[in-house]
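User: Hi! I'm working on a homework problem where we have to compare a predicted structure to a textbook description. Could you give me the structure for the chain below?
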Amino acid sequence: MTGTERRNVRQRAEQRGRWAEYAAEAMFRVKGYAILGRRVRTPMGEIDLIAARGDTVAFAEVKARVDRSVALSAVTPHQARRIVNAARYWISRNRPAANRNCRFDIVTVNPYLWPRHLANAFGEDLW
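Assistant: Happy to help. Predicted structure tokens:
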């Protein structure tokens, strides 16, 4: 594969990822969540979406795959730890969130289907 072909593959994957994040954001909004952040970058890593409803803040990892089980298995223990650490950093900079319940969710986005939301998919105690 040439450099141009690799670049095109990466660009298409980036576009699919952005589309999946927009779909996940729409799903959260329909469920009554407020979006606190999109593609939040921290020194520990990136958080795809941060959403809040009531006294809960959800840190969501969005995975776009052909099959839901493949999407769920794409969140590795290493990636989950990175997201937990990024969330800790974000909370340290956003003190009002420290008084809320926090959880870590996965949103799977599959072609032609509404995004599926798995609340409390992982946490620092699970890994």
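For your comparison, note the following. The chain has one domain: 3-122. Residues 3-122 form a domain with the Trna Endonuclease; Chain: A, domain 1 fold (CATH 3.40.1350.10). Good luck with the assignment!
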